[in-house]
Amino acid sequence: MRDLYRCLDEYPSELLQAIADTWHIALPKGEPREVASYLAAAMLAPQALEDLLYTLSPGAREALAVFVGEGGALPGHRLAVRYGNIRRLGPARIAREQPWVQPENALEELYYKGIIYRAYGAVGDYYGEVFLVPQQLLERLVELHVAAPALEVRIADAPARSVGDGLALTEDLFAMLVHARQGHLQATKQEQGPRSGMMAPRPSGLGARLSGENHPERLALLWRLLLRLRLVNESRGLLHPTLRAREWLQLSEQRRLQSMVLAWRDDPRWDELHLLGSLRCEQWQDNPVNARRALLQVLADCPQGMWLSLDSFIAALKRRRPDYLRPDGDYSSWDVRDAQNGAALIGFGAWDPIEGEMARHIVAFSLRWLGVTEVGYSDSGLQPTVFRIAERARESLVASATPAQEAGADVAPQPMVLATVNDDFTMTIPLVGSLYERYQLERFSEWQAQDTVATYRITAESIWESQNAGIKIEQILAFLKRISQDQVAPVVARTLQAWGGRFGRVTLRRTVLLQTVDEHTMQQLTSRPEIRALLGRILSPTMCLVDQEKVEELTGRLKALGIWPRIKT
After folding, report:
1. Whole-prediction pTM value?
2. Are residues 128 and 36 both part of a single domain?
3. Structural domain of residue 61, as residue ranges?
4. Residue 197 has pLDDT above 60, yes or no
5. What is the pLDDT of residues 378-409, one digit of tens each?
């Protein structure tokens, strides 16, 4: 932040005199630097700033409060949209017209009173002309409790119909992780472009497991979150859960929600602007991450626990952060058109169909799917008219509105969730707070249904599959006793032990037959220790078995030797 003495030192004598007149300060004769120093000291004298504040117009007081709320510096174009421009007048014209007597707008009033100054510098990601309050004046204004004006959002009546997704997205991520662990989730090609990967196919086989709506954009968001949260990795064309996925499932509900919001917020390849059906983007250069961060900062200032007019929030965003999508204030260089008639949307007059619609889409769709907002409709309305921030999401929203905030990976101890194990081999467990327990349940049982509780069934088939995955009957029984507080029916325990006794009397192994063209080639292979270690049982002088999991490594070593194997399927 610049110093008041330095700011005044750069001014011509005519402008120094103008500022002195508005503060009722008599300037001495002398060198310009001495005069500037005298004026600065007088402006910082006790009670001087307080007396000046009483002379400000309501518009100037509001603009000054905005400066204080934003830390004392703002891009010039953002202020010009709301308050107008400060005329560029030379010393002679300043002396002749005396613009401080009748300033054209609130900014000119503050400028000619020496409270704000014009400079070039950086504010966030913007670099260019800025207006700032010198450090000494800013500190005094904070001491005087000059506060940023409240966000002007209108409180609304409760809607006739409301929609909130709650934990649906979390549940669907959980279902996809289970699907991936079972080897059913195929990897999709991830292009390298900044706007690629925006759509994704519906995961086959999940069916009723998906709790949320079957919307292509929502399904694409699920895929992006899986990747952004590093919950899966790819191997041989399939996605598999990572160790991080286990940690994520053990997070508290608040930490898990915050991690999803941050993953969405900071995804450079996810851009709601290109998901708006009302627009056709031909040429643009936006930063969706910074746009979402700026929007969340404004959203976090909304009144708590109330239904709010969506239109009034868009209007408040336009007043406070009109440049949230285009921080350079350039509203003319983009080639964005109306999707229906192809008309070019140019200038700040096109803010509503571009910035306004994108903000509306984020609140009504992206944030609703994430569980942050709920939206409401009128009796017959097709578009939401009101919204509110879900109570469970408010803490996460405030945290995610801070650019430097990141979600930690700490796993906090969670209270035990009590499950019921019935005589008919069904189990029920509450949804809330049980993701990790259910993730373990699904290793040896079959999902049946869920609403507020999830229902599972243990079958002979599910136990057989779990034992092939290396889970022992003793581990299953110990887990069931733990989550049910030792309330496992004897018939269930006896049956599980009986099923366990059936396992392993016969072993089936998937192998590949390796056949050489002659005995010499086989001898050449077995003579090399690194090759011999990958071979299985020798069947004949020209044939042997190879475990399927070793085929890829063996193929690579053979090719390195100049032996290209023929693969037959």
Report:
1. 0.84
2. yes
3. 4-143
4. no
5. 888 789 999 999 988 888 787 776 665 554 44
